[in-house]
Amino acid sequence: MIEIKSLKFSYDENAVFAGLSLTIQEGEFVAILGHNGSGKSTLSKLLVGLEIPDSGEIWIDGMKSSEDTIDDIRKKVSIVFQNPDNQFVGATVADDIAFGLENRQVPREEMVEVVAKYIKQMGLAGLENAAPHEISGGQKQRTAIAGALAVGADILILDEATSMLDPAGRADIMKLVRELAKDEKRTIIMITHHLDEAVYADKLVVLNEGEIIKSGSPRCVFAGDLEELEAVGLDVPFAVKASKQLYQQSIIKKICVTNEELIKELCI
User: Fold this and answer.
1) From 13, 38, 86, 208, which residue has the greatest number of CB atoms within 10 Å?
2) What average pLDDT score do residues 217-225 get?
3) If residue 135 lies in a helix (H) or strand (E), which one and from where to where?
4) Do the Cβ atoms of 84 and 137 come closer than 8 Å?
5) Crossing angle of helices 137-150/167-179, nearest 10°?
6) What is the domain range of residue 158?
7) Exposure string (b/e) for 9-42, b if CB count within 10 Å is 16 or more?
């Protein structure tokens, strides 16, 4: 679904990427990890054409990103940013979800059906006419995700979409993302520095100074040197640290990546 080839990009002659290559499969849930300044948010902007590469290629569903194709690419890729207040453009929840559909001149009858579908799916029933100041940060992010899905985006990018939410709001959005990845079969890219969220992804991609230093399934990445992850500013989840020590002492039979998995393994 996404192929990045030898990508180079700089801000004011300061190199962010010096030859990045990455492939993401259709329907894959990928977490892009790294500390602030590692290049992960810049990557999301390059994917949707908000920034232009110095060189290299970005392919989205068989289309090479360029001035001629960017409009078609943006029909396939939607992005949800970290601050829910900065992306709420409608007067109400329903208006906000309908915004992208109106821009694409979707007939009103069809628009009403689509908005109703995603209000229900995102757990926003009863909030259709609520104004932005009347709902929580998590509900605003649900509204932003609903708007992204409503326009039919095959690829959903969540750029630090939980970073400004409280723990309950973060858990709420992560539950939703896992459901989308499992049930909707959409390609999801989650930009984050929270490893405890990333453990639910199919693949982790760890960036440091614009380079991929680790890539693979959560279990594969965590099976390696945890100090390397901590050295680049990532906080390894408790379940991983605890299970790795227990595994090394032959108390449990595998390294666990979530609290639920660790509890289950300890109860065997």
Assistant:
1) 38
2) 87
3) none
4) yes
5) 20
6) 2-236
7) beeeeeebbeebebebeeebbbbbbbeeebbbbb
Give the CATH number for residue 93: 3.40.50.300
pTM: 0.88
Q: Which residues pair with 29 in a beta bridge?
A: 188
Paired residues of 189 in beta bridges: 30, 157
How does residue 86 score in pLDDT terms, banded at 50, 70 and 90? Answer: confident
pLDDT at 99: 92
- The total of structural domains in the chain comes to 1
Length of the chain: 268
The answer to whether position 154 is within a domain reads yes
Q: Is residue 120 a part of any domain in this protein?
A: yes
CB 222 within 8 A of CB 50: no
Question: Region 160-180: what's the mean pLDDT?
Answer: 82
Query: Is 262 inside any structural domain?
Result: no
Tokens 């901590």 found at: 230
